[in-house]
Write a structure and sequence with these properties.
By secondary structure, the chain is of the alpha/beta class. The chain folds into three domains: 3-77 and 146-248, P-loop containing nucleotide triphosphate hydrolases (Rossmann fold, 3-Layer(aba) Sandwich); 89-136; 258-307. The chain has helices at 41-49, 82-87, 91-107, 114-133, 139-149, 166-179, 196-208, 220-226, 245-286, 292-307, and strands at residues 3-12, 15-25, 30-34, 56-61, 67-70, 184-188, 212-216, 229-234, 237-242. Strands 5-6-7-3-8-9 form a six-stranded mixed β-sheet, with helices on both faces. Strands 2-1-4 form a three-stranded antiparallel β-sheet, covered by helices on one side. Strand 8 and strand 9 form a beta hairpin. It is elongated. It starts with a strand and ends in a 15-residue tail after the last helix. The structure holds adenosine-5'-triphosphate. Residues 12-13, 17, 35, 37-43, 321 line the site of adenosine-5'-triphosphate. InterPro entries: AAA+_ATPase, ABC_tran_Xtn, ABC_transporter-like_ATP-bd, ABC_transporter-like_CS, ABCF_ATPase, P-loop_NTPase. Residues 3-260 form the ABC transporter domain. Keywords: ATP-binding, Nucleotide-binding.
């Protein structure tokens, strides 16, 4: 298990947007999160990312697991350049790099005695080994590869993040979370601003991605390619389906039809019982004196009717999303 939601509820503006949501996500699972507009998909992602707390129930994250969350409109420090944003997943590496630079400067000082020189050199070696072990020498190559894959202009790393277009912000935000190599990726509408080649690149990337992914998307073709499980959010609850989006659509249709059939059967049964009660009462009153036995049978039937668990009428058609 990487993350689990246990009977999670979230109240926003006096409305239970999520009322009772439970599921478990295993390592490496690819989940498409779907549901009508306003059903709470973004809210659920924010709860999983830990940027918002549930009002009911709990979210469990496996100890030490890292989450990468791409919001619909990625945010960053207004003074940051794109390179700052792309380097932010490598904060520890950059700290090592800074220390190595400082040690190199100190080594260049001709007044150093042998003993101090040796100490600085030893420390430099430790930093360098750590830097290498953590992939420090590949950092810039990896950043460049992602920038190219997402079709961002070559000069984009030098630009201020705040000056980018919405589409460019999405791409840079995507590049940032991908570079952070999380155990769980949460992507909110990542395809919205992507051009065709960037979309293909992302599909390819995700197909090789070994971590877990939860992706909200209105693009059914994209979902079919990247998801092997679907969480369907509706009326504050979720239903889980195995398989891709096309499979989900078929399964859901069948489930709804079966539910509708059961609802119609029950409605027919109720109608029949109501008619039978009415007839029994009429017969009971027609006899002289009125038949206590027939009234009793009618009352028993009324009680059975009251005890019946009423099925809700399933909504077969509603504005679909995606
Ligand atoms: N901070 C907030 N305060 C009050 N209400 C909110 C807040 N955030 C979201 N909502 C409301 O909660 C509901 C769910 O919103 P959410 O964005 O999670 O849905 P969604 O399924 O992601 O929608 P869409 O598909 O349109 O992006 C909506 O009715 C929205 O107006």
């Amino acid at each position: 298990m990487i993350i689990a939601a246990n009977r999670v509820g979230k109240n926003l503006d006096d409305r239970w947007v999520l009322s009772d949501v439970s599921f478990v996500i295993e390592r490496g699972e690819r989940i498409g999160l779907v549901g009508p507009n306003g059903s709470g998909k973004t809210t659920l992602l924010r709860l999983l990312a830990g940027v918002m707390a549930p009002d009911r129930g709990e979210v469990f994250l496996t100890k030490g697991a890292r989450i990468g969350y791409l919001e619909q409109i990625p945010q960053a420090d207004p003074r940051a350049t794109v390179l700052d944003v792309l380097r932010s997943p490598f904060a520890e590496l950059m700290e090592l790099e800074r220390e190595m630079g400082e040690l190199a400067n100190r080594m260049a000082d001709s007044r150093l005695d042998e003993k101090r020189m040796e100490r600085i050199l030893n420390r430099y070696q430790v930093c360098q080994e750590e830097f290498e072990k953590r992939g420090g020498y590949e950092m810039e190559t990896r950043i460049r590869r992602v920038v190219r894959g997402l079709n961002l202009p070559e000069d984009v790393p030098d630009r201020p993040f705040a000056a980018l277009s919405g589409g460019e912000k999405t791409k840079v935000g995507l590049a940032q979370v991908l570079l952070s190599e999380p155990d769980l990726l949460l992507l909110d509408e990542p395809t919205n601003h992507l051009d065709l080649s960037a979309l293909e690149w992302l599909e390819d990337f995700l197909s090789q991605w070994r971590g877990a992914v939860v992706v909200v998307s209105h693009d059914r073709y994209f979902l079919d390619r990247v998801a092997n499980r679907i969480i369907d959010l509706e009326d504050g609850r979720c239903t889980l389906y195995q398989g891709n989006y096309t499979h989900f659509v078929k399964e859901k249709e069948q489930r709804l039809l079966a539910e509708f059939q059961a609802y119609r059967e029950q409605q027919k049964k109720i109608k029949k019982m109501e008619e039978a009660i009415k007839r029994l009462r009429e017969w009971a009153n027609r006899s002289n004196p009125p038949s206590a036995g027939l009234h009793r049978r009618a009352s028993n039937m009324e009680k059975a009717l009251k005890r019946m668990e009423l099925l809700e009428r399933p909504v077969l058609e509603r504005k679909k999303s995606p």
